[in-house]
Amino acid sequence: xxxxxxxxxxxxxxxxxxxxxxxxxxxxxxxxxxxxxxxxxxxxxxxxxxxxxxxxxxxxxxxxxxxxxxxxxxxxxxxxxxxxxxxxxxxxxxxxxxxxxxxxxxxxxxxxxxxxxxxxxxxxxxxxxxxxxxxxxxxxxxxxxxxxxxxxxxxxxxxxxxxxxxxxxxxxxxxxxxxxxxxxxxxxxxxxxxxxxxxxxxxxxxxxxxxxxxxxxxxxxxxxxxxxxxxxxxxxxxxxxxxxxxxxxxxxxxxxxxxxxxxxxxxxxxxxxxxxxxxxxxxxxxxxxxxxxxxxxxxxxxxxxxxxxxxxxxxxxxxxxxxxxxxxxxxxxxxxxxxxxxxxxxxxxxxxxxxxxxxxxxxxxxxxxxxxxxxxxxxxxxxxxxxxxxxxxxxxxxxxxxxxxxxxxxxxxxxxxxxxxxxxxxxxxxxxxxxxxxxxxxxxxxxxxxxxxxxxxxxxxxxxxxxxxxxxxxxxxxxxxxxxxxxxxxxxxxxxxxxxxxxxxxxxxxxxxxxxxxxxxxxxxxxxxxxxxxxxxxxxxxxxxxxxxxxxxxxxxxxxxxxxxxxxxxxxxxxxxxxxxxxxxxxxxxxxxxxxxxxxxxxxxxxxxxxxxxxxxxxxxxxxxxxxxxxxxxxxxxxxxxxxxxxxxxxxxxxxxxxxxxxxxxxxxxxxxxxxxxxxxxxxxxxxxxxxxxxxxxxxxxxxxxxxxxxxxxxxxxxxxxxxxxxxxxxxxxxxxxxxxxxxxxxxxxxxxxxxxxxxxxxxxxxxxxxxxxxxxxxxxxxxxxxxxxxxxxxxxxxxxxxxxxxxxxxxxxxxxxxxxxxxxxxxxxxxxxxxxxxxxxxxxxxxxxxxxxxxxxx
DNA sequence: GCAAGGTC
Length: 859
Fold this sequence. Notes:
7 domains; Rossmann fold; magnesium; alpha+beta; Topo_IA_cen
């Protein structure tokens, strides 16, 4: 039997399909792992997929260092054994200007600043990371008479293959092994690769392993150092790494630019133009006046103007080209613009890929291979998604010339829908991403959009004004792909000499804006541009920076802690803070791969560079600890104590582990505030962070998967609730000839807010209220149902509602205002909706599972 | 308790 070892399951499956003599390969399982059995020229073959790297590098357990005997380990009875370490590490571990100050017997497993120099020079072992896969691999290897490594054709692939082979060698030391190198999972490539088997490239694998070692050594040493400089308790690791630290530095650098930015004043003159049946924006031909006097002079001419004359009408049409196919980075950027973070995009994409909706999601390629059945996919989409059917029909009728991106690789096709599966079974996030991918795919097969731009030149009291409007005259690809499309701005049909009304002309003082913060999508693109990380790692690295609290918010801001970390590393270990470390590492690895340098030399050189920085780092440990401590306190600050003026900070209760806000003046000052549970809370900065009503801090609350809101932390503050506010009079009571007032209440127990009539016993009139937002009475009643109208101050501004949830006006609002009105549903109505959604989801899940199972057994 | 790289 021949054993084919691929990097991942899909590759193992594809290879089996492409090499199999006749008919489909047989799906089989060895201990729950999928393997594929087939025959080649009558010979029995089996292929299996790994799960990427199956071994993980780590520092050995229980290895110690002694000045005289070097590295050693202790047996269980305490016997000293020389450790099996590579020659290069037999040297004194730490070439410091000082003599090593440590006692003998340093254990590198303990997190101690004193052991960091030894960690820098520690040997590295590789531990099994995928025990199940290794078990299957060994099981099959024992039964095989030859083994073919068919992992991806790149540096990491070669390393993954070499690691797999080392596991095979443990059970089959003499089995012949060879390597198949294919760069695309298509018949011609794969058969050619298996017809021309080569040897595993040990140098290339060594290069990959050097990368692993250097990343681990630098990452572990600096992470331990930062964590220990000011230990913040377990769960408060301050990490550093070759990719994450330069990425953080990008964000910090942008923030510094913003802070150093000096805004410049400018002035704008803008107003409204109107014809009998339409209104449009007009602005002075000089878009920005930098001279205040000139702006005021121009404004004085038009301030009281009521009419303007059209001087010229010009029309220009421009074409917008359809987008190029998605690779990982462009998908992440497009999804980020739709509010899905890169990390979440990858989690959802993985699930869509695993259930057969989309192609493999980790790709650099942006050119569809010739072998891809574009027409078949469009047909599949057409029958699977009713919403896409009309546009699919158009695509099928057209010439279907796909666009091409700049990056052409042959490993996988660009990310595209498979045309399989029923999109109705997907959940919210999946559906959103699937639609983006499906619509992008269709757009790449369509023609350009044509936008007609109309420009009006208008004379207003001798001053030149303009108005512009963009109208999509031929949607082209936009019919499939509306993402990021600006709304039409239609100007009325006007001709030279026509006179229009003008009004509301204003002189506005403005200031230039600092450079924008990175969005998560932009940061992923910037990382790619600078060679930081790979398509598979960038999203998770950004996410990591959020979990260690170096970053916050979106657009991305660095925390004080993040800035302190960059400052410290910039001063004492600058190499880790720039993309150059990655560039130099790449150059080193190329030399190792070419056989011009060795793993030992390259890794030792890197160890020496790190060791050279340790002296200064250790010397300044306490300074850094203080800086981190100050930064953490500053990050926790939510405001100033209204009672004693000291800082109010987020604290964690030792007893309940819940969060609360407390005064730094404790125990002298006892001011505390509760913090809503189940939401992510962050302080608001500047004026927004202080409640104008009561002086307590205002905070931003981010509930899981719903809109963030802001509120004052003081539960007794009038901004949280106006108790016993009269919002109107009871209509039912009035009809019955008595008087009843409608009063707003808040339940002490549940915290729910509602309106109830003072004669509730008799009329039973009560209305629910939204859970948050300051309430104002208007004195008005709803024209549709006669219930009172109130204003609720929400995060998105004031919101007028009729308190009667059964009011007929609600239906209209739901359609016209979308989310805003949806929030006005009664809790009962909400419950029904929630139930429906859950039921739908459960049904959807069941269907998906059924389908997948059905599909699997069919294969 | 550390990184970054694969992929589940």
